[in-house]
Amino acid sequence: MMSHTSPEGTPPPEPSPPASAEVPAAAPASADPAPAAPAEAPAAESVTAGSPAADAPAAPDAVGDPAAAAAKAPGGFAAPVAPATEPPAPAKLPAQPYPAEAARFAPLPPPPPGFLATRWQGPDYAGGPAAWTAALIGGLATAIALPLSRPAVGWLLVGLVMAGAIWHAARFGPKPDTRSERLIRIGWAVLALALLAVGTFRDAGWLYVFCVLGAVACGSLAVAGGHSVRAVIVGALALPLAAFRAIPWLGRGASAWQKSREKGGTAGRIVLSLVVTVILLIVFGALLASADAAFATLLGDILPEINMRTFMRLLIYTVIGGLITAGAIFTVLAPPDLSGLERPSSRRIGRIEVALPLGGLVLLFAAFVAVQLRFFFGDKAYIQKTSGLTYSEYAVQGFGQLLVVTLLTLVVIGLVSRWAVKETVQDRVLLRSLLGALVLLSMVIVGSAVWRMWLYQNTYGWTRERLFFGSVELYLGGVFVLIALAGWKLRAGWFPRAAVAGFAGLLLFLGAANPEHFIAEQNVERFQKIDFWYLRALGPDAAPELVKLPEPYRSCALSWMVRDLRDNPDQWYAWNLSRDHARDLIAEIKSELRPAQGSCIAAERENANRR
């Protein structure tokens, strides 16, 4: 009888199944998938050390030369990276068995792509030498000429430098569709520069903070655009977001630039040498200035005070300014697609959902207005008699609540205008009637809030906060006027941009009106009725009025200003018209000023006697 084993004692191989045999889709749970691995081994061992394929040279690093890169990336703002050698295909793994109870759970669908992936992918090329150069120019301008701690002409200078770099890049990006849209973009840019220019003439830091934020929003709309409410909000926030998105974009450009630098001739080397030169001058200049006072004085006439702290500040400012410039160029070359935010909403609410809430608000506002109309024409005695409150208590009470009511009413009107049904004539008549009544009553509420603030300021005196919030309430009244104008057609694409431009116009008006000078003028005329110590906190804008005070009030009111102007001299980039004028006024009366401590004690004593 023949044995079924081989001479070595191992069983013979199983006969191969016929070619037409069906292979199961997955092995049973108890099957060992390990035997499938040797099937891939011959492919891996097919290339030996001595074979021609092994001795063949590796594919060179596929990086295009600068000429080809500039041809693909307009304006040289990018350096596209050619694809590298194709990596080997990964080894195939056998199908993995799953427990039977796992089949009851369906796999989760992948999350839908977000706004950045679908609407704002950015440029399809990396940020090349031109983008780096523009970012470096904007960063160095920020580091050299930006006085972050105070309003000054340097803000406008930095804005002009950045605007020039962005305008140069905009020539290579997509153009707006219509001529009117191009003019609107230019208008946003001009408005941003005008807001930055406020710091050249006014020293009110609290006002200039809003001007800088408004300039960022207007500059963002200049590069990103936007028409509807949602699109304008996204467009106003595009520039800060793009500053972060520009980091990997510049990183890819630097990598491509480094790989092609040897083939790029002398241009790339010159730019790199200039960058290294600037860095070395800043580092060694800071060290040498900290070692010798005379050298520091020499540099201080041209640059800010040079020391290690200044060096860190310059480095941080360079990075921030460079990223803002690069983010604006990133947006100009590939702006976000806001068309999805411009479409009207598909959600609709019927007549009942519109009539009941709006009708209730109209009745509530009408009752409030009926009560308030009694006080609009009443004097101080009438208000005290009918309301049971003193004149000052009535002025203080309710302004904040009325401001919140005004803002919430704008939100309600916006949501109803977007979602309400407008297909039939009856729908449009109902919507116009309810929204029109709500707008008119809201304007009366705005008038009530402004009236209360006027009484408040006449009772307690004018301050920055009271003046600013009163101006904001007046601006909201103007927004209601715009809503009334847009409500006739129930659709106005110009309204969101007009509202933003209106607030920027309010800031420009306050800057031109010189609010701190106005506050000082009002309080100086009746300084015995207010907290006199508040005048000390006013800035150089108020100096022309504070110098009119009698002694010892004048010396006390100017004490903080005199100390600040003495301890913080302005360099060329920190020049400000109000501070320069205040120095001249103080120099004229310097011999008449008394010591701050003694004058303030005497002023407090006399002020107490006046009351």
TrEMBL record:
<feature type="compositionally biased region" description="Low complexity">
    <location>
        <begin position="19"/>
        <end position="68"/>
    </location>
</feature>
<dbReference type="Pfam" id="PF13687">
    <property type="entry name" value="DUF4153"/>
</dbReference>
<feature type="transmembrane region" description="Helical">
    <location>
        <begin position="125"/>
        <end position="146"/>
    </location>
</feature>
<feature type="compositionally biased region" description="Pro residues">
    <location>
        <begin position="9"/>
        <end position="18"/>
    </location>
</feature>
<feature type="transmembrane region" description="Helical">
    <location>
        <begin position="354"/>
        <end position="377"/>
    </location>
</feature>
<dbReference type="InterPro" id="IPR025291">
    <property type="entry name" value="DUF4153"/>
</dbReference>
<keyword id="KW-0472">Membrane</keyword>
<feature type="transmembrane region" description="Helical">
    <location>
        <begin position="311"/>
        <end position="334"/>
    </location>
</feature>
<feature type="region of interest" description="Disordered">
    <location>
        <begin position="1"/>
        <end position="68"/>
    </location>
</feature>
<protein>
    <recommendedName>
        <fullName>DUF4173 domain-containing protein</fullName>
    </recommendedName>
</protein>
<feature type="transmembrane region" description="Helical">
    <location>
        <begin position="270"/>
        <end position="299"/>
    </location>
</feature>
<feature type="transmembrane region" description="Helical">
    <location>
        <begin position="182"/>
        <end position="199"/>
    </location>
</feature>
<feature type="transmembrane region" description="Helical">
    <location>
        <begin position="205"/>
        <end position="224"/>
    </location>
</feature>
<feature type="transmembrane region" description="Helical">
    <location>
        <begin position="231"/>
        <end position="250"/>
    </location>
</feature>
<feature type="transmembrane region" description="Helical">
    <location>
        <begin position="494"/>
        <end position="513"/>
    </location>
</feature>
<feature type="transmembrane region" description="Helical">
    <location>
        <begin position="398"/>
        <end position="421"/>
    </location>
</feature>
<feature type="transmembrane region" description="Helical">
    <location>
        <begin position="152"/>
        <end position="170"/>
    </location>
</feature>
<feature type="transmembrane region" description="Helical">
    <location>
        <begin position="433"/>
        <end position="455"/>
    </location>
</feature>
<feature type="transmembrane region" description="Helical">
    <location>
        <begin position="467"/>
        <end position="488"/>
    </location>
</feature>
<keyword id="KW-1133">Transmembrane helix</keyword>
<keyword id="KW-0812">Transmembrane</keyword>
